[in-house]
Amino acid sequence: MREMSAASARRTALAAQGLASTRSRTRPASKAAVHAAIETTGLLQIDSVSVVVRAHYAPVFSRVGAYDRTIVDDAAWTDTARRPRRMVEYWAHEAALLPVEDWPLMRWRMELYRHGRWGGAAHILDREPTLVDDVLAVIGDSGAASAGEIEKHLEVDTPGRKGPWWDRSDVKIVCEQLFAAGVVTVPARTGFVRRYDLSERVIPDDVLRRHIAEPDAVRALVEKSSRALGIGTEPDLRDYYRLSQKQAKAAIAELVEDGVLEQVSVRGWNAPAYLHREARTPRTATAAALLCPFDPMIFFRPRVQRIFDFHYRIEIYTPQHKRIHGYYVFPFLLDGHLVARVDLKSVRAQSELHVIAAYVEGDRDARDIAPRLRDVLREMADWLELERVVVGERGDLVDALR
Questions:
Q1: How far is CA 46 from CA 50, 86, 157, 188, in A?
Q2: Given strand 273-276, what is the order of strands in its sheet?
Q3: Largest CA distance in the chain
C-alpha cells in the first residue's frame, strides 16, 4: 500500500475542491468559472440561515471570488430554451442543489422516502387521508405553488392545523414528504420559500425516465464524492451524499477493484484512505478563502479535524452565553491551513460587513494572517455590495486586523 504524508493528503483534498491555487481577481468571475466551481464541488448545500449570504452562494465565492449570484439562481431555478435548468433541489448532503442529470442517482432514496421521511407525515395522513391527493390536485391545476398558496386554495385554517414537525402546517409537511419522494420538486423559490411543482414538469423527460439500480447509483455517488474530495476515508466518502456504511463499503470495494480508487495509507490518519485516480497533489497550496459552515470542504467535521487538526462546530443552536467563537463562524483558509475563525454578519441597513469576532488558530502570528484576511473581507464586502468592513472587539486577531 502506498503511503502519503498528511501534508500531501491535505493538498490533494484542497485541489479536488478547487481551493489550492491562488485565484484570479478578475471582476466579476465569468459564468464559465462559476459553473466550473459548481461542477468541482458536485453539490451546494442549502440552508435557510442568511446571516452573511445564503449558504449555497458562499462556496462559489470562496473558489472564484466576486461573481453574479444570478448565475447560480439561473442554474437552479430558471428553465428556458436558451438557459435550460442545470441544477435541481433534493436531499443529497442534507438539502442541496445537485446537477439535474444526477436525479436518477437519487431515485432509490426517493423510493425509500415514499414510506415516510418524517413520522409526523404518517400521523397526518391517518387523520386526513385525502390530503396528498388534494395537494397534488392543486399543484396539477395551478402550477408551481408554495405551501401557503396551496393552503389558500384548499381553504385550510393554518393556525389551527399545525403538525408536529417544527410547528409546520399539515400541508407543508405533505409538500415536503412529496418532495422527498420525488413526486414534486422545486422549480423556483420566492423569497427563498419553496414553490412545488410536479417533477414531470420540471425534470427533463429523458432524465426522469432513466432508472438506475440502487447498487449502480450508489457506486456512481461514491465515485462522485471521491472525485470531489480527492482523497478520503470510507466515512468521508459516504457522508458526502449521506450514504450508509453498508452501501459505501460495497461501492468502494468495487471502485478499488476497477482501479478508480487506490487504497493508500496517510501518516497520522487513523483509517485507510482512498485516492481517486484523477486526483492531483500540488506541490504547494496558496489560496486564501473564508469557508462558510456549509462549505463542502468542511461540512463533515471529523474530516476537518483529521485533515486540518481543526476542531470546528457550528454554534447557531448554542445559547449565546455558551458560544466560544460566535454565531456564524467562517474558518479562514490560508496557504493550505485553517488559520483563523471569523464570526461574520452582513448588516445591510448600514451597508456594513461586521467582523463580530476573529480568533487566531493555534500559535500562529496574527500579523501574518491579518493582511490576507483583510483583502478577502474587503472582496467579500464588495461582492455583497456593502460599503464598509467593521471590525469588532472580540478575539486575538481583531487588533491586527483593524
A1: 10, 16, 29, 14
A2: 2-4, 261-266, 273-276, 231-232
A3: 65
The helix/strand/coil state of 349 is helix
pTM, two decimal places:
0.94
DSSP state, residue 330: E
Neighbours of 119 (CB within 10 A): 9
CB-based contact 88:203 (threshold 8 Å): yes
End-to-end Cα spacing for the chain: 49
Q: 272: which DSSP letter?
A: -
d(CA 54, CA 347): 14
Contact 325, 341 (CB under 8 A): yes
Q: Beta partners for 264?
A: 2, 273
CA angle 59/60/66 to nearest 5° reads: 120
Backbone angles phi, psi at 107, to 5 degrees: -65, -35
Q: Any idea of the CA torsion for 370, 376, 382, 384, to the nearest 10 degrees? A: -110
3-state class (DSSP) for residue 228: helix
Q: What angle do CA 38, 43, 46 make, to 5 degrees?
A: 110
Peptide linkage before 28 cis (omega within 30 of 0): yes
Give the three-state DSSP class for 58.
helix
User: CA 304, CA 239: separation in Å to the nearest integer?
Assistant: 13
* Run of H or E including 59: helix 58-64
Length, in residues, of the chain: 402
Kind and range of the H or E run holding 256: helix 245-257
> How does pLDDT run along the chain (402 residues), one tens digit per residue?
899 999 999 999 999 999 999 877 768 899 999 999 999 999 999 998 999 999 999 999 999 999 999 999 999 999 998 899 999 999 999 999 999 999 999 999 999 998 766 666 777 888 889 999 999 999 999 999 999 999 999 987 655 455 444 457 899 999 999 999 999 999 999 889 999 999 999 999 999 999 999 999 999 999 999 999 999 999 999 999 999 999 999 999 999 999 999 999 999 999 999 999 999 999 999 999 999 999 999 999 999 999 999 999 999 989 999 999 999 999 999 999 999 999 999 999 999 999 999 999 999 999 999 999 999 999 999 999 999 999 999 999 999 999
Find the radius of gyration of the CA atoms of the chain. Answer: 22
Grid-cell match 448565475, residue found? 71
Is residue 361 within 8 A of residue 310, CB to CB? The reply is: yes
